[in-house]
Amino acid sequence: MVGYWVSIAMLSLLGAIQIFIPYMLKSTIVFGVTIPTSQIKHATVNQTKKTYSVAMAIIWLLMIVSYSIWGLSINQNGELQIVVGVFTMLLFILISLLFYTYFHRKLQVEKQQKQWGADLTEVKIASTNKQDDMLPLSYFWSLALVSVILIIYTYYQYPLLPQQVPTHWGPSGEADAFTEKNYFSVISLPLIMLVTQILFATISEGTKRSGVKISALNMQKSAYNQGKKRQYTSSFLFLTAFLITLLFSFLQLTTIHHAAIGKNFMLAIFIGFIVLTFMGSTIFSIKFSKLNKEIAPSNMSNGLTDLDDDRYWKGGLVYFNKEDPSLFVEKRFGIGWTINFARPTGYIILFGPILIIFFIAYFL
Asked: How far is the C-alpha of 275 from the C-alpha of 269, rounded, in Å?
């Protein structure tokens, strides 16, 4: 049943975000299309948001009911419940992307035909100042130090390790896949943990160094919101990295001292990790979305509008701008940040850790 409840929790979070996401983002960016403030209450804009949310709610309800009927009526193992749950989430994301694509195109056509914003003067305001309210890089390096110490300790305790080293753990926290003991396989888990920690540190630092895009409609409020968004992002990244460090360290220590921990405690650790991650993701999404509320135009913003950079967004999802030195930019449809794909470093950050983890898994 653990696999079922994990899937239900993730489906619930994913469903809530996708259903309400049109109302969680900036009112001037709708389905990846820049909307002038004079048109944010336009009938077409409001209708696309409403239709998307209602459609996603119906589809989500059908999926979660179907999954529940399957998961509760058939005595499936936790592993299979997780697999089916992940497939259900991927299917839901695919359907949401199809709806998004349709409404993105619809608003694009409406904007072009009605020439929204043609009578306004576009203004671009940006700042490259570092965000001092973000967590310092040393926080993440302290987690990386835990990985290094754990690798050293593992080699020190090498004689205590079993001949079959666990490489995978099921939803209940019990190991269900093993490999032969050698000097590489015994540190595979802390190595993956170290790669993950470096990834989170890189994302945090890259976000800190990226340009701050300030709205011309209300510069003071916009600058404040950008600072808070980056603060929330760095805190969420550190929380996630910290929880992964705790979980992976615990699993590695139980591999070395396998008789010291009971099954019930293992299960409690896994459930605690899931609950805390779920809570952190929910709080981050709520706080981030609150800052996306409409910024009231100041008295000096009459006749002005923010720079329309739709041309740099492929489908409103992929940002490609060679003129922008920023490595990370705020997503147009979603919570958080995305990579500027015009920067080669972005590809290293995106694919590098994945390739390293696959490399580690391949040689186990």
From this structure: 10
pTM to 2 decimal places: 0.85
* CB contact set of 342 (below 8 Å; sequence gap of 6+): 319, 320, 321, 322, 324
Between CA 247 and CA 26 the distance in angstroms is: 35
Lowest mean pLDDT of 51-60, 64-73, 278-287, 292-301, name the range.
Answer: 292-301
Nearest to 305 by CA among 23, 21, 44, 27: 27
Instruction: Tell me the H-state helices in the chain.
Output: 2-24, 43-73, 78-114, 137-156, 188-209, 219-256, 263-290, 344-362
Other C-beta atoms closer than 10 Å to the C-beta of 361 total: 13
* Contacts for 90-96: CB closer than 8 Å, 24+ residues apart: 91/63, 92/11, 92/14, 92/15, 92/18, 92/59, 92/60, 92/63, 93/14, 93/18, 95/59, 96/18, 96/56
pLDDT digit string, tens, across residues 197-219: 999 999 998 888 888 887 777 77
- Compute the distance between CA of residue 364 and CA of residue 359 in angstroms, rounded to an integer: 9
Instruction: Tell me how far apart the alpha carbons of residues 204 and 328 are, in angstroms, rounded to a whole number.
Output: 10
Asked if pLDDT for residue 5 goes beyond 50, the answer is: yes
Return the closest-CA partner of residue 208 out of 140, 155, 125, 254. 140
For the purposes of burial, counting CB atoms within 10 Å of the CB of 309, is it exposed (0-12), middle (13-18) or buried (19 or more)? middle
Cβ burial, residue 68 (10 Å; 0-12/13-18/19+): middle
